[in-house]
Recover the amino acids of this structure.
């Protein structure tokens, strides 16, 4: 073994790789927030909805959380064209990850919904709040506070998991790493740098989330 | 005109009948107290009046107007005239004292924030909580939380106030501060329906006392009728037992 590490060629591609990190962030923000909105609807439906709706949501969650995200995106990308639906690789990835986020976030948010104290709901109704106002002012802050930790964990999981987009040719961080290493053949160096960028992203995300939790929801989260 | 008129109100949880036809009324500015053993349906009655538990039969009129509990519009109109304070105060844990008191007038009645905050400050001062505007409920004692809950109800400027055993969850030394708060309210002409086990207080502030047992009204009368010469066996037993306590 007398391999000499050479980071020069990788560092020259750093702006290109950081651009990929930006694409990763875009994918994650899009799928996380859309998944959170749909997951909130799923959670409310699962707790307060009529039985058929509750069963349908449960079936959806069980189906999605028990099949690999990779397989789901595979179906979207390679099988749907047979049915006449042609998706770009990016669209397939965004839809697939959103379907996943929705399922996981439905479960996470549901735990928050059932933990809202009935006493506060009664008070809100007694104060003549509308359903939307109760959701906005009473339920959401409580839900956000209770599920803050699993929500943050899921965000990180999603950020790392989004690397499967590379398998479909999406040029996010991992995708660009594959491009770079196939040209410079410096695989170890390239992926070491990319690993450091991922760690940087998760650290920034953890710290931002902890700060957000502390300021907005009075959650005393710790990063380390 | 009778301010609050309740006729034959019935209410069930599942198949169990909790209220079996309750009739009572309050004129404007009256303080009507509900007494009776635990489990007799006093809380259920107050919850049914605001529509938190749906009545299965009977009629409720507020200022002569019948309430339709199956109509969201009618119930919302009812709740704009009525406020309820719960036994367990039920403050919003994620909001400061000030926010607890101002949220309903600002978001529901769409009143200007500055005006509402001025009113809230006045109400909080009236219940002796002027130093705690920025505190969260978890930082307050039960008595303090209950006084904030009363201020929150008053911020809606209700015409009728329902108070459910507002002192029963409090330490004995905290009871008087809350009773003092209510006592001052009775001088302001607000109609009150009050559930309480504080018999001397009930006797002092009530214009009428309603004795309930097993989901029914046993007897209604002035405080001296109920406490000094009750006509029903059940009232006699209950009052005798409570006063001895
Ligand atoms: N949510 C509920 N579900 C089923 N039964 C209830 C519920 N709340 C109260 N009850 C029953 O209704 C009866 C009256 O209760 P309540 O109105 O709280 O009486 P009180 O306030 O006079 O003590 C009790 O027997 C109680 O067990
Ligand atoms: Mg009760």
């Amino acid at each position: 073994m007398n391999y000499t590490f050479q980071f020069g060629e990788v560092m020259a591609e750093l702006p290109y790789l950081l651009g990929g990190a930006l694409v990763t962030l875009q994918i994650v923000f899009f799928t996380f927030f859309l998944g959170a909105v749909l997951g909130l609807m799923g959670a409310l439906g699962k707790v307060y909805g009529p039985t058929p709706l509750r069963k349908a949501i449960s079936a959806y969650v069980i189906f999605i959380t028990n099949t690999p995200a990779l397989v789901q995106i595979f179906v979207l990308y390679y099988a749907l064209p047979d049915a006449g639906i042609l998706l770009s690789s990016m669209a397939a990835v965004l839809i697939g990850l959103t379907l996943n986020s929705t399922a996981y976030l439905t479960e996470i948010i549901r735990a928050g919904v059932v933990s809202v104290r009935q006493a506060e709901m009664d008070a809100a109704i007694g104060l003549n709040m509308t359903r939307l106002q109760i959701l906005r002012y009473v339920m959401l802050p409580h839900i956000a506070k209770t599920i803050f930790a699993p929500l943050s964990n899921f965000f990180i999981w999603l950020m790392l998991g989004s690397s499967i987009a590379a398998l479909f040719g999406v040029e996010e961080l991992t995708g660009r790493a594959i491009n770079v290493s196939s040209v410079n053949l410096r695989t170890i160096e390239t992926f070491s740098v990319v690993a450091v960028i991922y760690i940087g992203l998760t650290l920034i995300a953890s710290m931002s989330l902890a700060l957000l939790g502390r300021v907005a929801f009075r959650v005393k989260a710790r990063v380390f | 005109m009778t301010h609050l008129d309740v006729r034959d109100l019935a209410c069930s949880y599942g198949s169990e009948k909790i209220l079996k036809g309750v009739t009572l009324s309050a004129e404007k500015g009256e303080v009507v107290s509900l007494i009776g053993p635990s489990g007799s349906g006093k809380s259920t009655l107050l919850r049914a009046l605001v529509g938190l538990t749906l009545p299965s039969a009977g009629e409720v009129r507020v200022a002569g107007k019948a309430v339709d509990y199956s109509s969201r519009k009618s119930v919302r109109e009812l709740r704009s005239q009525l406020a309820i304070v719960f036994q367990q105060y039920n403050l919003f844990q994620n909001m400061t004292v000030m926010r607890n008191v101002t949220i309903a007038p600002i978001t529901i009645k769409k009143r200007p924030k500055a005006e509402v905050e001025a009113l809230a400050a006045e109400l909080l001062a009236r219940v002796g909580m002027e130093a705690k505007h920025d505190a969260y409920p978890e930082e307050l004692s039960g008595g303090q939380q209950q006084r904030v809950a009363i201020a929150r109800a008053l911020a809606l400027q209700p015409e009728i106030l329902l108070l459910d055993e507002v002192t029963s969850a409090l330490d004995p030394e905290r009871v008087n501060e809350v009773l003092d708060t209510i006592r001052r309210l009775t001088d302001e002409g607000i109609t009150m329906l009050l559930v309480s086990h504080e018999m001397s207080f009930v006797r002092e502030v009530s214009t009428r006392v309603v004795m309930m047992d097993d989901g029914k009204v046993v007897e209604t009368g002035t405080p001296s009728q109920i406490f000094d010469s009750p006509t029903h066996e059940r009232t006699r037993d209950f009052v005798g037992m409570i006063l001895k306590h």
User: Anything to note?
Assistant: Chain A has a mean pLDDT of 91. Residues B 13, 18, 36, 38-44 surround adenosine-5'-diphosphate (ligand 1) (CB under 6 Å). The interface with chain B takes residues 117, 119-120, 122-130, 133, 137-138, 141-142, 145, 217-218 of chain A (CB under 8 Å).
